[in-house]
Amino acid sequence: MIHAEMRSCEWAPDGIELRPLTGGDAQTYAELLIAIWRETYNGLMPAERLSSLELGTVTNQARRMLDDPNGPSTLGAFRGDALVGWARAGEPRDDGAPLDLELHSLNVAREARGTGVARHLMENALGGRSAYLWVVEGNERARSFYHRSGFRDDGERRWEETDQTHEVRMVRLADATVLSGTVRPPCADGEGRPWYSK
Fold this sequence. Notes:
Elements: E1 16-20, H1 26-40, H2 47-51, H3 55-67, E2 74-79, E3 82-90, E4 102-108, H4 117-126, E5 131-136, H5 140-148, E6 152-160, E7 165-172, H6 176-179
Helix pairs in contact: 1-3
């Protein structure tokens, strides 16, 4: 299990600490998710889908997800007491996965973009391991970030019925000749265990 204490790291962005989120963080998580989605996916998802994101419903969904003992952990980034982003990685959720690790989600608040928080979260969630992800087609900011982080489109696309979007799949292999130094080592806890260790 990922260890729940707050931890900083020598290469972390200024003032950022990491810890796994729990059900007690559900409302804060939901508030930030709704704000991020309504900004990021405006014009990429139907307006009806974005307007349907209701705080109580999203909070309840988040609480169940974050408290699920069988699900992957969600790593949160905090500046002081404020949640500014999270990353969630674990077993693939779809059939025919190209790798055995999927980056399920990576979200960062507007004020933390461009500060290194997204990279910090992603590398600690993935730990330099080979992984894949799905990203909404048309979200060029995210696709550019993932490309700079060593991910490449693998040619697969899918239709996401709930969100009414097309998604493209990106893959990154844990190979130094491919990554060319894009991956930093994950931060360790007080006993030297990386965040992603189970």
